[in-house]
């Protein structure tokens, strides 16, 4: 790999020839096709990371109700004020601090959300943890914090989202291209994201009326970005915000249950939609070997 190439950690994970790093016309939040009017959304991880920008995208797109959560209420309230300035008159915004790894806290969050905006239509699981450290020598509590946030936290949010009752809605959970390789020092993070992918794959099959998507945000400069990847952090967080809007529309219906990346060009994907669906190109691979009744075709 040529580490001097700014695309060194993006090109290996490209489905499309066109690399997207920022919002383009199709994904402008002001596009009528991306209108969130009439939709309510709950976004986790808003007091840090890319959650704030995602919330701004939904406000710009005119969501009827926006619930933002994180651990820092002061930051959340400041963001809520910003959202009200971006959103149309009448948009309801709730800022509620919560610990997504604590079931009672999550239950209270959904109770407050129902009172403030009614049923939540779209759940965006953008909260995440990347503690870092080698397998075996990292303190167990630190190592498994990634599982607490990325797996347990996402599961609890999903559980209470489904508990709203009618079995419909959209769930967008963030994963990472790093699950496709081995990155020393990121074992807890990538393992937890692999577990998250499998949970969402099961949810897609078990809840056929629930729209489930897994989104890779590219490499964005946030507090979670490891030092070695900072030179490659060229992706705008606004691109993730726009993608969540797109995934909540009927145009993304054929991508349900799959893993998609903000770096992939949507129109190029649509041009090859039949092949992508036929060959399950958005599904997670199992092994590089070709498995079957006759075994791998050895050379």
List the helices and strands and how they pair.
Elements: E1 40-43, H1 51-60, E2 65-70, H2 73-86, E3 92-97, H3 103-117, E4 122-125, H4 140-162, E5 169-174, H5 187-206, E6 210-216, H6 237-247, E7 259-261, H7 266-271, H8 273-278
Parallel strand pairs: 1-2, 1-4, 2-3, 4-5, 5-6, 6-7
Helix pairs in contact: 1-2, 1-6, 3-4, 4-5
Describe, in plain words, how this protein is organized in 3D:
With 299 residues, the chain is of the alpha/beta class. It has a single domain (20-278), classed as NAD(P)-binding Rossmann-like Domain (Rossmann fold). Helices cover 35% and strands 12% of the residues. It has a seven-stranded parallel sheet with strand order 3-2-1-4-5-6-7, sandwiched between helices. Residues 39-242 form the Ketoreductase domain. GO terms for molecular function: oxidoreductase activity. Keywords: Oxidoreductase.
Order of helices and strands: EHEHEHEHEHEHEHH
- Uncertain runs with pLDDT below 50, 5 residues or more? none
Order of neighbouring strands in the sheet with most strands? 3-2-1-4-5-6-7
- Into which percent range does the helicity of residues fall? 25-40%
The CATH homologous superfamily: NAD(P)-binding Rossmann-like Domain
User: How many separate structural domains?
Assistant: 1
Q: Could you say which overall geometry the principal axes of the C-alpha atoms support?
A: globular
Task: Report the CATH topology name.
Answer: Rossmann fold
What attributes does this structure have?
299 residues; alpha/beta; Rossmann fold; KR_dom; SDR_fam; oxidoreductase
Brief rundown of the structure:
By secondary structure, the protein is an alpha/beta fold.
């Amino acid at each position: 790999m040529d580490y001097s190439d700014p695309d060194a950690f993006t090109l290996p994970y490209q489905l499309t020839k066109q690399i997207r790093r920022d919002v383009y016309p199709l994904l402008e939040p002001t596009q009528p096709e991306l209108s969130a009017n009439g939709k309510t959304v709950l976004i986790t991880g808003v007091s840090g990371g890319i959650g704030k920008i995602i919330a701004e995208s939904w406000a710009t797109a005119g969501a009827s109700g926006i619930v933002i959560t994180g651990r820092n209420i002061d930051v959340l309230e400041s963001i809520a004020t910003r959202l009200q300035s971006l959103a149309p008159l009448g948009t309801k915004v709730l800022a509620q601090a919560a610990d997504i790894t604590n079931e009672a806290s999550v239950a209270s969050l959904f109770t407050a959300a129902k009172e403030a905006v009614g049923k939540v239509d779209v759940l965006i699981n953008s909260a995440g943890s990347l503690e870092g450290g080698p397998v075996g020598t990292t303190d167990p509590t630190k190592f498994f914090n990634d599982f607490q946030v990325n797996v347990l936290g996402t599961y609890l949010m999903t559980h209470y989202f489904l508990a709203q009752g009618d079995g419909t809605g959209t769930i967008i959970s963030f994963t990472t291209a790093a699950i496709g390789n081995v990155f020393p020092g990121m074992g807890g993070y990538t393992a937890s994201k692999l577990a998250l992918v499998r949970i969402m794959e099961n949810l897609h099959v078990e809840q056929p009326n629930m729209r489930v998507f897994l989104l890779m945000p590219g490499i964005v400069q946030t507090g979670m970005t490891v030092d070695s990847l900072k030179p490659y952090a060229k992706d705008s967080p606004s691109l993730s915000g726009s993608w969540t809007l797109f995934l909540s529309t009927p145009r993304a219906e054929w991508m349900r249950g799959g893993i998609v990346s903000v770096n992939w060009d949507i129109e190029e994907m649509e041009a090859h939609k039949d092949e992508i669906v036929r060959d399950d190109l958005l599904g997670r691979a199992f092994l590089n070997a070709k498995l079957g009744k006759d075994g791998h075709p050895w050379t």
